[in-house]
Each structure stands twice: as structure tokens, then as C-alpha cells.
Amino acid sequence: MARHRFSRLFDRRLKIALGATIVIGVVLMAILAPLIAPYDPYKQDLIYRLQPPVWSDLGDWKHVLGTDNYGRDLLSRLIYGSRLSIMVGVSSALLSAVLGTVLGMLAGYKGGRFEQVIMRFADAHLAFPEILLAILIIAAIGGSALNLILVLGISGWMVYARVMYNLTRSLRERPFIEAAQSHGASDAYIIGRHIFPQLVPVLTVVATLQVAQMILQETALSFLGLGLPPPTATWGNMLAEGRDRLWAAPWIANLSGLAIIIVVWGINMLGNGLREQLDPKSRERR
Known about the structure:
CATH class: Mainly Alpha
Helix content: over 70%
CATH topology: MetI-like fold
Number of helices: 12
Strand content: under 5%
CATH superfamily: MetI-like
Structural class: mainly alpha
Radius of gyration: 23 Å
Largest sheet: none
CATH architecture: Orthogonal Bundle
């Protein structure tokens, strides 16, 4: 039994450590991109056009990961592409978290007509695919970093709203909330002082997992030509460029796809590890 508990505890901490290492590494890479990128990601050098990676027979150490159709260094574009992916993913997830948490807490605490309006709207929104809604809006207003953040942020609020609503409803009936109400505490004080702190662990886990979802959606929109316009260095744009040359230069799509897989896997590992670590039932089983 003790060995089984140690195994579960080690597994949780290993997930958090691996996920955090990948996430911190990518964030540092994004922040330090101007210092660590070997070339300007937009500089064209047609002499080295479609240069394969260094491990290929025709590879050259001048461009370790090869070049694209315009001779741009892929390593530099991958490094700079992480900046936009992280910025859009984190910002849109933060916007979704703020909107969904506020509306979900208010609906769960207030109840009545306000609850019905917010939660029925959230249910209707959940029935509509997020990526399809994002495609429709971006196609209408155009692709830019700000538009992507706004569209992805607004399209994902209902996930937080549903979770926060259910948790707030369960907390609303607890004795310490009734005690605060009996002492004349305002609704704002009760929500900010007694309810929201109880929701932070779950909110942290949901937000972490949603960052990965937002990065995937931004990549999908860029891949479809609805994200940031070329030649902006984004992983989705690189994936789209590599699609047209999949047989002649497979490393373009493969490397950008691998970067997306590693980052999303790391974020999901971190989120799952935090979920297991912060789950009260998991702590009781240790």
C-alpha cells in the first residue's frame, strides 16, 4: 500500500516537473528570442533555399534545422514563432478565465433570472463548435494578434463559466457562507473573500489546460490562412507553408508540427499533474 501511494505521488510530481520544464523552457525561448535566434526570421537567402537539416546528407551547420522556400532559417522562425503562440494562447486563456469566472460565480451565487440567462447562453454556446465560431468571426474581421486574442478568448469563456457555476452553487450552501451573510457581509465581500479563494485551485488547472487548447486553435486558424498573415513567423504559418512542399522539403512541416506537439504535451502534462495534486480526493488517497 505504501509503495503504491509513493508511486502515485512520484507520478504526479514527475508530470508537474516535466510539464513545468517544457513550459518554462518555451517561455524563456520566447522571451530571449532576439538573443538566441541565429538569424533574422524574415531574412531571405535564396542561395540556401530549401536547405535540409544538418542531419541530412546535404545539410549544413550554417542552418541547423534547414531553410524554407525563401531561404529563411527555420530554427530562427521556430524560436520567434513561439512568441506569438505563447502570447496568443496565454492572453486568450486569461480573457476567457476572467469572463467565465466572473459570470459563473455571479450566476451560481445570485441564482434566479440572472442564472438562467447566463447559463442558458453558455449552454447554447457550448453546442456551437469553438473553432467554427472563431473561423466565422476571423473571416469577417480579419486576422491580427489582437483579433485572435479577442475571438479565442470570447469563444472559450463558457468552459470556465460552467465549472465555476457548479462549484459556486455547492459553496453557497456551506455554513461559513451562511454565517457571513448573517453578519451582514456584502455579496462582493463574500464572493471575493470566501468563494473565489476556494475556486483558485480548480481555476488554475482549467486555465493551464485551456492554454494548450488556445495554442492549437491559433495554429489551426493560421494553418487555414485566417491567423496572422504571412510572412509572420508563427508555427501555424510554417505548417501551412510546409504542407505545399511536403514531399520536396518535409522538414518544414515536420519541425513546426513537432514544436506544437511538444509544447501542447508539456502544458497538458503540467495541467494533469496539477489536477491530481490539487484534487482533494487524490490527497485523501495518498
